[in-house]
Amino acid sequence: MSYEIKQYDKFRYVEEGEGEPLVLLHGLFGALSNFSDLVEHFRTQYKVIVPLLPLFDLDIFHTTVGGLEKYVHKFIEAKGYTDIHLLGNSLGGHVALVHILKHPERIKSLILTGSSGLFENGMGDSYPKRGDYEYIRKKTELTFFDPKMATKELVDEVFEITNNRLKVIKIIALAKSAIRNNLGEEISQIKQPTLLIWGNNDTITPPFVAKEFNKLIPNSELYFIDQCGHAPMMEVPGEFNKILESFLTNLNQRAATVA
Fold first, then answer.
1. What domain count does the chain have?
2. Range of the domain at 194
C-alpha cells in the first residue's frame, strides 16, 4: 500500500483517516513501510500520521535526539494536533519520550515499542567499510526474530543509507546522541497512560529494557510478544494491532465514563 506524502511548510508526512491523531515516529533505519499494516488497520478509526523525520537533513549540530524532538514539536504545533496518541519505535520511541517530557500538554497517551532511551545495542562496535553488503544484510536480519523479514528490498534500503558517507556520519551522530541522552529517572514524570509492546526476542533493546520502562513509568502496562524482535509492528502486525486497539479502546471508554 502506498500513501500520498503531503507537504506542509517544511514538513513531509502521511495523514490517513479521521479521528483522534495517532502519530507514528519511525527509527534510525525506519521508513514508511514499517507502519503500513498499522496505518491500514487504524485509519478507519483514527487520523494516522507519519511525519518523515529529517534524519539526514538536519545540520550535524542538530542531528541529535533533541534536534528530532524539536522538529516533531514544530510539526505538531504547525498542524494543530491535540489529544495525540504518540507511538514511537526504536529511536522514534526515544524522540517520543523526550517530547512528552518537554511538551506533555497535547499528548493523550504514549506507546513505545523497542524504544531506546534507557539502553540499546547499536549497529555494533564498528561500522563497516562502505560497500559491505553481506555485513549490512546480517545486521538487518538481527532486527527480527525471523531473518526472512529482512527482505532484499529492506536490506537494499539500509545498504543505500550506509553506503553514503554523509549519511553514515549522521547515523553515528544520532546513535551517539541516543546513548548520551539517557532519560533514566526523568521518565517517572510521565503522567499519560503508556503502553509498552515488546518483542520477547529483541536483541537491540532486550526485554529487561521494557521491564525497566514499565517500572519507571507510573501509569504503564507491558505486553511481550513471543518469537518477535525489535520491530513488532512489522514482524507480528496482527498481534501488535490487537494489543494497541484494546489499549486505545479502554482508554476512550474510561474517558467517556469520567465525562
1. 1
2. 6-120+182-258
